[in-house]
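INTERNAL AUDIT FORM
Audit reference: QA-55
Scope: verify that the stored structure record matches its stored sequence.
Auditor: D.O.
Record contents follow.
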Amino acid sequence: DIKQIVDEHTLVMSLMNGVDSEQIIGNQIGMQHMVYSLIKVASHKEDLGYVFDPETTIGIVLEENKEIDELFSQSDLHYRTTSYIQEEIWNKFRLNVTKNLPQAILGAGVGCYSDSDHVKAIQSGLKDELEAIAKAKGIDMSKADSSATRGSAVPKTARYSTLQDLDAKRHTEIDMFSGAIMKMGKELNIPTPYNEFVYHIIKATEEKNDGLFDYK
């Protein structure tokens, strides 16, 4: 859709989850238009709309770009630039995979990560597989800013985006999370059993929400 309005002056920031959206968009409009970036905000839906705490929100992280820096500096946006945007994107990817997915298959608030050794074990398995793939790709996540390893402040009852989608009977971003890890694992010959299990559990839950198992 945006291909029709892109010209030589256009810059595009996807801000989508996962680690491959820039390449997907760039394949359509040209990678020269892409500015690698990410956004970190914890929001939830209430009756009046989506709610988040601006003061605890990290905001946008992007690769160094003079034009965008000048634009954002005139706004109230929380943002920063970095020389290690790939490492920052993979750090957010790790947070999404290890924080979004275990609570989604349980239907529990984020307090489960501090209160259950079993949930911690699932987290650890997902994390080890992701980090093995990152290492094989030459991604050194230790180069990312220290703020990249934490999210916005949330209560134990918080439900991140994957669980919010399942609660609302929407399809999730699981293909961009464990689906992408499985694909990269196959390409690099790295086993990903934890991610494969979580992928299929969430896909089956989507099928259940679609009514596939409403047997008469």
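Auditor finding: record pair retrieved intact. The first helix runs from residue 21 to 29.
Action required: none
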